[in-house]
What we know:
Blueprint (H helix, E strand, L loop, with lengths): L8 E6 L1 H18 L6 E6 L3 H10 L5 E8 L12 E4 L9 E9 L3 H11 L5 E9 L12 E5 L22 E4 L1 H6 L2
The structure holds inosinic acid.
The site of inosinic acid has 17 residues, from β5 and α3.
Amino acid sequence: xxxxxxxxxxxxxxxxxxxxxxxxxxxxxxxxxxxxxxxxxxxxxxxxxxxxxxxxxxxxxxxxxxxxxxxxxxxxxxxxxxxxxxxxxxxxxxxxxxxxxxxxxxxxxxxxxxxxxxxxxxxxxxxxxxxxxxxxxxxxxxxxxxxxxxxxxxxxxxxxxxxxxxxxxxxxxxxxxxxxxxxxx
Length: 185
Ligand code: IMP
């Protein structure tokens, strides 16, 4: 692996400027829909933190923030299909308007798991905001109220998304050169 992560890029799928515009649009919709509702943004660690921080900077309504961590990938490019709760929320969401912020919805298993888990906690409402979706990979259909971009069935990195914990700091969404997937383990 070379020292600059940019050297490992094969193709930029979504440039930084397109992401910025889309995040602004999503935030405007949230501002309009959640005025006077004091929603809680729940960020799914770790992939959604960059998206969440840009989104929240564009949101101008009263709101709060919490984090949850789940795993299903274990460092490779294929989901294990088993979702595991690694870290729970700090605050109760009972009676709160929840906006679950996710980097990418791939098979839908993670969002489906979290939706069912959260509904047992009796929130006032529940919506998902996801930057990316891969429609060709859907195994469980989940309703995504705030959707950024649909992408093809390719493993992508950047803007929070990792491969083997690397590449989250890229400001765009990209694919990696094929040899990288074999080298970084
Ligand atoms: P799902 O449960 O299959 O929908 O997978 C959701 C999780 O898988 C996301 O939160 C990501 O952490 C990870 N994931 C899915 N596709 C990609 C990808 O293309 N790049 C990086 N991570 C991915």
